[in-house]
Amino acid sequence: MSIAPEERNAMLRxxxxxxxxxxxxxxxxxxxxxNTSQTVxxxxxxxxxxxDITAMSSVLTRLNNxxxxxxxxxxxxxxQYSDVAExxxxxxxxxxxxxxxxxxxxxxDESRLAGNHFYSIYNSITNDTIADDISLxxxxxxxxRLLNSGRFTNCAEIRNLYEQDDAYTSxxxxxxxxxxxxLTTSDLSKKDIYESRLQASMDRCMTAKKHIKxxxxxxx
Length: 220
Fold this sequence. Notes:
Number of strands: 5
Strand content: 5-15%
Radius of gyration: 33 Å
Number of domains: 2
Helix content: 55-70%
Number of helices: 6
Strand order of the largest sheet: 1-2-3-4-5
Oligomer: single chain
């Protein structure tokens, strides 16, 4: 933003007055194009002229316009780009995050076989539980994005996400079960079987997680 010399001088004069530097000398502006008959105000110590007020008002108006432009640009980008809209409506809370009209809460249960941590989704307005016992954060975030975009809780995309998350959870439990059996058996043939099933369960688990990440990436 460019500031005219008159505006700059007005700002310096007002600053000196507010700081008590009444005797501070002020730069002068030589403007040969001014009309010689124009009234010139001679301000005494501590006084503000009408030209000072006008110049300062012009600066403040420009600053206000710049702020409004920034806000307008952010609103425009939020409509065009979903990432911007999500950033503007995302808020960290004590036990999770709030995204738009929904909350994703991080919970813990030591007895949970698929892992101690899991996620729940709540409606921030009605406080209704949308989903519980979700294993992956990617699943919860994708569901919330779909809900905020206007999808219904029983739409095909959300049901698919839940199915993949359930598959991930089930295969992870199977993998942990076979791992424990492999560690506790002394029968070498059974040990080989358990380790083979452990690897197969982990492969299925990772495949389900990969599908969830792909679906979550495509939700915009």
